[in-house]
Design a protein that fits this description.
The protein is mainly α. It is built from 6 helices and no strands.
C-alpha cells in the first residue's frame, strides 16, 4: 500500500478539476452545436451525441496515455527519422506549420497544454510513489476519463 503525499493530492485535485472543467466546456460546445444543427446533419440525435462524445473520450485518452509517454520512446523514433536532409526539411516545415497553427488557435492550445501539464504532474507523482509505468498510466486514464465524464454529466444536470 502506498501513502499519498500532500503534493500528490494537490496534483490529483488539479487533474480532476481541470478535466472536469474540460468536460463541462465540451458538453456546452456539443449542446450549442446540436442546437445550431451544425454537426447533426443526416444523423439521428442519439447517434450524433454518441459519435461526438466518443471523439471527446478518445481525445482525453490520447492526452492521458499517448502524450505522456516517456521521452526516450520519442527520441528513438526521431533519431532514425532525421538521418537525411529531405526528412529534416519536412520536419522543419511541419514544425513551422504547427507553430503557425498554435499561434492562430492559441486558446485551444492553452487548453490542451493545461490538460497535458496536469496529466504529466499526476503521472510523475504516481511514479514517485513507487507505482510502475503501466499502473500509473491506467490510474491516470481512469481519473482523467472519470473527471471528464463527470464534467459532462454535471453540465447536462445543472447547465
Amino acid at each position: 500500500m502506498f501513502r499519498y503525499t500532500t503534493t500528490a493530492w494537490i496534483s490529483t485535485t488539479l487533474l480532476l478539476m481541470t478535466y472536469g472543467v474540460f468536460g463541462w466546456l465540451y458538453a456546452s460546445w456539443v449542446t450549442k452545436m446540436m442546437e445550431d444543427e451544425t454537426i447533426s446533419q443526416g444523423l439521428l440525435q442519439s447517434q450524433n451525441s454518441t459519435i461526438v462524445y466518443g471523439v471527446g473520450t478518445i481525445w482525453v485518452l490520447l492526452i492521458a496515455i499517448v502524450f505522456t509517454t516517456p521521452v526516450a520512446l520519442m527520441t528513438i523514433s526521431l533519431n532514425s527519422w532525421l538521418k537525411s536532409e529531405m526528412r529534416a526539411f519536412f520536419s522543419i516545415f511541419f514544425g513551422a506549420l504547427a507553430f503557425a497553427i498554435i499561434v492562430q488557435w492559441l486558446d485551444y492550445f492553452a487548453r490542451f497544454f493545461v490538460l497535458l501539464a496536469s496529466a504529466i504532474l499526476v503521472k510523475l507523482d504516481l511514479q514517485a510513489l513507487g507505482l510502475n509505468i503501466w499502473l500509473s498510466q491506467l490510474l491516470l486514464a481512469v481519473m482523467s476519463l472519470g473527471s471528464f465524464w463527470s464534467g459532462i454529466v454535471a453540465f447536462n444536470y445543472w447547465g
